[in-house]
From TrEMBL:
NCBIfam families: rrf2_super. PROSITE patterns: HTH_RRF2_2. GO terms for cellular component: cytosol. This is Transcriptional regulator. One of its GO terms (molecular function) is DNA-binding transcription factor activity. InterPro entries: Tscrpt_reg_Rrf2, WH-like_DNA-bd_sf, WH_DNA-bd_sf. It comes from Pukyongia salina.
Amino acid sequence: MFSKACEYGIRAATYIASQSKLSRRVSLKEIADEIDSPVAFTAKILQQLSRNKIIDSVKGASGGFEISRSQIDHIKLSHIVYAIDGNNVYVGCGLGLKKCNASKPCPVHDKFVQIREDLKNMLENTSLDEMTTGLEVGLTYLKR
């Protein structure tokens, strides 16, 4: 449902948030290792997240990536998805047909309407703080 870049973006932001809660900045290589993503690809994703003010990039010897602790609860997954994939997850045909719409629907059009609404609701109501909670207690993970 999400692009690979978006999946990695969510995982990267979640990892950065978890480390920011511990007052740690993390390097590009550490993030790429932790989310099991190629370094160059991760760099492009982090650049998009930084441009969209989801993460902060600090240059220099003690630099790295972080998220302000006060922002962790305010950043929703929908912000990350929009920064990486735009609104593509909310539009278009579930089967990839170009001419699918309400007046000329594909066989799954009506079912996809509800799935998209549920997905939108989940993305808009799940914060990075919530995502990090499972990591902190060892109930969730970011690698395959």
